[in-house]
Each structure stands twice: as structure tokens, then as C-alpha cells.
Amino acid sequence: MSPAIEVSSLTKSYKTSSVALNGISFEIQPGEMVALIGASGSGKSTLLRLLSGLMPANAGSISSIAINGRVIQTHGKVAADIRSSRAHVGLIFQQFNLVDRLSVLTNVLAGMLHRLPLYRTLLGFFKDDEKRLAIEALMRVGIGQCAYQRASTLSGGQQQRAAIARTMVQQAKIVLADEPIASLDPESSRMVMELLTEMNQKDGCTVLVSLHQINVAIKYCPRTIALSHGDIVYDGPTSALSPRLLRELYGVEADELLKESTTTTLDATSVSSTSPEAHSSLNLANVY
Predict the structure, then answer these.
(1) pTM
(2) Could you report the per-residue pLDDT of 199-255, keeping only the tens digit for each?
């Protein structure tokens, strides 16, 4: 079985001459849930953008990225069929990336555009069974009652859950989440992380999530890849990331990661007992 994510000698620098990633290599196997940690400027967001083909690595480099056996980019050139490859990669951002003036339902339906005929994507025409699938995803993340509201009316936590519902509708096999809980309160953060865990455990998605909070990584992600100034300084069990080891890896920068952990508290309730579905009191017939 080929790796879900395969990265080799990945290098990225910017015009300012700053090196964002310094020839890093790693593999993530299908079904893993991996945390990507590091202080601000360590290269986490750059890595996720490169993995999704949203930017190329350094031109002429020996960098290569493959997802589920399909080449995303190589030698600093994004693959010609990147749109087809990206259809199987769910992207979740800190900024939610919803269209405020559209309904929540329409935003979620956008997750299936890649598999619809062109004329239907241009007209925004969705069949009843497709709408039902989107509403079921919204109910699964606990906001089925918000289906027909404008996206702009949702709270930050609700918007992030809508973005996760869009990824569910997309039927992505790989989920790349770029600091999805950075701007959320503790309760919303807990719900978002439990939804990502549910997608990993129940749907079989491979999840790579960048985090600032070590305690969150320890709770939800068995494996952690730690970046510092563009280099991988740790790749192994999250349970081994003690404050002492973090200070050995990051020096004074460890205080940023440890501070985030002390200010973000997630209770230890299991995913199954606190599923966001319990927060949606409407049944499917009420919103469809």
C-alpha cells in the first residue's frame, strides 16, 4: 500500500531569502491522524499549501509530493492534473473560507462541485438527493438547524463546523487542516477536534492538522511532526512530547507552544459521548 502522503526533499524559500522549508522528507500512512506543530514561522502553513498544490516548491529543486500515489508536484512544478488530485483532498483553514452571502447549505454543497457536470456547477443546480446529503452532513456536525441561514450569521465555531461538513460532502480521503481551532473558544475547539477525529476513525480519512496547542495534539493525535525554522526536529509519538523535550527541541520558542497549551483547555470526554450530532435538535425532515 502506498503512503497517503509522501514528501521528499521538499524545499521552499521566499523572495526575502527566508527559508520556509529546508529539504524535509516524511511519509504518512493511510488512516493516520498526525499533528503538525511548531512556533509561528516554523513552516506549518507553507507545508500544507504545498501539499495541496496551492503553491509550488522551489523551481529546479528535487522536491516531490505525492498523495494517495498521485503526483501533486515535482521539481518545483505543480502537476497538470492538480484539480483532479485536489478533489480528494479536503482543506480546512483557520479563516473558514465560506461565502458569507450564501446559505450554509449552499456553502456545504460546494464540496461536491468537483464531481458535477460543468453546466450544473455554472447554474448552481443541485438535485434533491445531493441537498439531502449536505443536510445530513450539517446534522452530523451539529448545525442542521442553520442550513438555510446566511453563512455570515454563524459564530466562528459554527462556521468551522460548516467547513468540515463541506469536506464530508466532498468525500475527501485526505484532510489537511491549517490551525482549525486557532481562533475558537475551548468548547468550539473541542467539537472541531472531535469531528476531525470522527472523520479519521469512522470515515477512514487520513488527517494532518497543524496546531499550536501541545495538549490538543497529545489528546487527539497519536503521532506528531514538529517543525522549527523549516526543519523537522521531531517525528514520533505525541505522548513523548514532554515540556522538557519541547524545550530541548525549541529552546525559548517552546514557551509559545506551552503557553498555548495552558490557555486552551479541552475536557477529556470521549468523542462518542459528546458527538456534535447531540447538539442538533432538528431531525432531517424539519430542515429538508
Answers:
(1) 0.86
(2) 999 999 999 999 988 999 999 999 999 999 999 999 999 999 998 998 898 887 887
Q: How many Å apart are CA 197 and CA 212, to the nearest integer?
A: 17
Give 3-state DSSP helix, strand, coil % of the chain, rounded to 5. Answer: 45, 25, 35
The torsion angle over the Cα atoms of residues 139, 160, 38 and 19, rounded to 10 degrees, is 130
Kindly state the cell numbers that stand for 141. Answer: 456536525
Is 234 within 8 Å of 225 (Cβ atoms)?
yes
Rounding to the nearest 10 degrees, give the CA dihedral for residues 45, 51, 52, 55: 70
- Read off the amino acid at residue 258: L
Q: Which residue is associated with the grid cell 495552558? A: 262
In the chain, beta strands by DSSP E: 5-13, 19-28, 33-37, 64-67, 70-74, 77-78, 89-93, 174-178, 206-211, 223-228, 231-237
Interstrand relation of 89-93 and 174-178 (parallel, antiparallel or unpaired): parallel
